[in-house]
Specification:
- The chain is of the alpha+beta class.
- The protein is built from 19 helices and 15 strands.
- Strands 8-15-14-10-11-12-13-9 form an eight-stranded mixed beta sheet.
- A hairpin with a 2-residue loop joins strand 5 and strand 6 (105-112).
- The relative contact order is 0.14.
Length: 585
């Protein structure tokens, strides 16, 4: 599926859905929405009617496709969570986002509000909601942090091995309620901060300043993920000090453990890794994905990062990098202020102060550790405990068969009901998943009718769906020069490494140019290795843009077609000042 010259029609550029609009989905799937307030529109497979709207493939969060068990997580997060958050905050032009599924792959679209009256009423509500929370954001966020951490303490303390079916079902219902609550908190705060950021963006535009500088004015704050990276680099250094670096070259976690047992200080190093995992290991490599273990369960990802860090003996100087970011931040703010009149400087200072105290650039990384990569782990733990009971009772053949049951089906099984023949259903769904997951590389990054703009601040600032992005999608063909958003300054020439899924980041080598659909927090460690980064999606507040600036590497996001134009091994030049990427051959 490609954009053709004759696709420009009165109703805009249309990228056909083709076979993805057939309504095909997992065998035996029955939509069973629960009663939830503020649900503007449900998650569903694509139908032909969806061709009249715009849909972006969310390869940032769901690169490999989604299993039945993860469907409930997705619905809580991007569908219900965004719609709940948009309603609570009162974002005027959007009712949140909604998901569509092509095979097993996730697409994301907007639920726009077009009523002038509704937009006006919501704007009034937004002002009343936002004012006190932005005025004391630290207290506001600290309250939610305490609530979330208390829930983790509760669920982590559960003795799931001692629970029977009924107790597991009750605890699972609680974990699901917590999961939904956490995503409501997530998008309430995200929409609040995004709207505040957009207000600063508009002021900067009105003042004639460079809007591309805004994220740099807010940079330099430490986050949980940068602290995680620093600890991983420290563990690499400790492996050298203890003489166990060779053992970490083994390809699997099990092989590493065996090799460390043969080293005099192997047990000491592993103990340090376990101490790291106790603090930083309650995270998975993808959002809302039930079938992926946490780092604490299976530390393949941190071991892979440490293994690659060992190829760079000089390490990474986090303190020096932060000093450089802060120095640039202050210099750029001083330059902007010097160009303004006294009256405009007062407005600028107030808006910047508001965005620094309620800092989206910082929060968008910080909250991932507390919510996005962690909040589904209580459900996963209880689901696996339930799977063990169902295997023991002869309902399922293997533990991971439970990932091919929808949430409602698992709850029914624990209650004595459920599908009559789980084995045949699991087999059919595994076959369906394998077929569609393997076809992920064929699916287009966007489908439907390409607009000139969307009005959802999260879709514009995080996913990069700006007017420039849509112009690129409409106009860009296979070409040796790509245009996008200049996310981090500098120019570099290097060899491309195209990565399509988070679990493949261990393929990244020191000095590569990373090319991908977009990055999220699990990609952070590779930014200490690569020379530059290019993505299909992403805006001013995307993870890629934020981390590239913190690491000081040239970066261009939101090119629209990087992964479909560049191949691994290509020589590419990134101009992070102009937002241009050239394929040199």
């Amino acid at each position: 599926m490609t954009i053709t010259e004759d696709a420009e029609q009165d109703r805009g550029t249309v990228i056909p859905l083709g076979e993805y609009a057939d309504g095909d989905f997992y065998p035996g799937y029955e939509p069973r929405l629960e009663s939830r307030p503020f649900l503007a529109e449900p998650l569903a497979p694509f139908t032909r009617a969806d061709e009249g709207r715009f849909w972006m493939r969310d390869s940032q969060h769901f690169a490999e496709g989604i299993t039945p068990a993860s469907m409930g997580l997705l619905e809580d997060a991007q569908t219900w969570g965004t719609q709940y958050g948009a309603e609570i905050v009162g974002i005027p032009p959007t009712a949140g986002m909604v998901n569509r599924i092509a095979g097993v792959h996730v697409y994301l679209g907007q639920c726009p509000i077009t009523s002038i009256w509704q937009m006006g009423a919501r704007a009034e509500r937004f002002g009343a909601f936002a004012g006190p929370r932005l005025a004391d954001f630290d207290t506001y966020w600290a309250g939610y942090r305490a609530e979330l951490e208390a829930a983790y303490t509760h669920f982590d303390a559960l003795d799931v091995d001692a629970m029977g079916r009924a107790e597991l079902r009750e605890a699972l219902v609680d974990a699901i309620a917590f999961h939904r609550r956490a995503w409501g908190v997530h998008f309430e705060v995200m929409y609040l901060l995004a709207a505040n950021y957009v207000a600063l963006f508009q002021l900067v535009t009105d003042l004639g300043l460079d809007t591309g500088q805004i994220p740099k004015w807010l940079a330099g704050e430490e986050t949980a993920y940068l602290r995680t990276d620093e600890e991983l680099w420290r563990l690499a250094a400790r492996a050298r000090e203890l003489g166990v670096a060779g053992a970490l070259a083994e390809p699997t976690v099990e092989d590493v453990r065996a090799a460390l047992e043969r080293e005099a200080d192997g047990a000491a190093w592993w103990a340090e890794l376990e101490a790291f995992l106790a603090v930083w290991g309650q995270r998975t490599d993808e959002t809302a994905t039930m079938d992926r273990p946490s780092w604490a369960e299976h530390p393949a990802t941190p071991l892979g990062s440490i293994r690659e860090f060992l190829t760079r003996p000089e390490g990474h100087d986090f303190a020096a990098a932060r000093r450089e970011v802060l120095a640039e931040r202050d210099r750029l703010v001083d330059e902007a202020r010097a160009s303004l009149t006294e009256e405009d400087r007062t407005r600028f200072d107030a808006a910047l102060a508001s965005n620094r105290s309620a800092n989206f650039v910082w929060w968008n990384e910080e909250h991932n550790f507390l919510i996005d990569r962690r909040v589904h782990l209580p459900i996963r733990r209880l689901t696996l405990a339930a799977a063990d009971r169902l295997v023991a009772d002869g309902v399922l053949d293997a533990r991971d068969d439970v990932f091919f049951l929808f949430r409602a089906e698992l709850l029914d099984l624990l209650d004595g009901g459920g599908p009559a023949d789980c084995r045949s259903l699991v087999t059919a769904r595994r076959d369906y998943y394998d077929h569609w997951s393997a076809r992920g590389g064929e699916l287009p990054p966007v489908v439907g009718t390409v607009p000139d703009a969307v009005n959802d601040p999260i879709m514009t600032e995080l996913f990069g769906l700006t007017p420039d992005y849509f112009a690129t999608i409409k106009a860009q063909r296979a070409t040796a020069t790509l245009s996008g958003f200049p996310a981090a300054r500098g120019t570099v020439v290097g060899t491309a490494r195209v990565i399509r899924a988070a679990q493949d980041i261990d393929q990244v080598r020191d000095g590569d140019i990373l090319v991908c659909g977009g990055t999220t927090t699990e990609w952070t460690p590779v930014f200490g290795l690569v020379q530059g980064c290019v993505t299909d999606t992403g805006g001013t507040l995307s993870h890629t843009a934020i981390i590239a600036r913190e690491y000081g590497i040239p970066c261009v996001v939101g090119t629209g077609v990087a992964t479909s134009t560049i191949t691994t091994g290509d020589r590419v030049r990134i101009d992070g000042d102009r937002g241009v990427v050239e394929v040199l051959g």
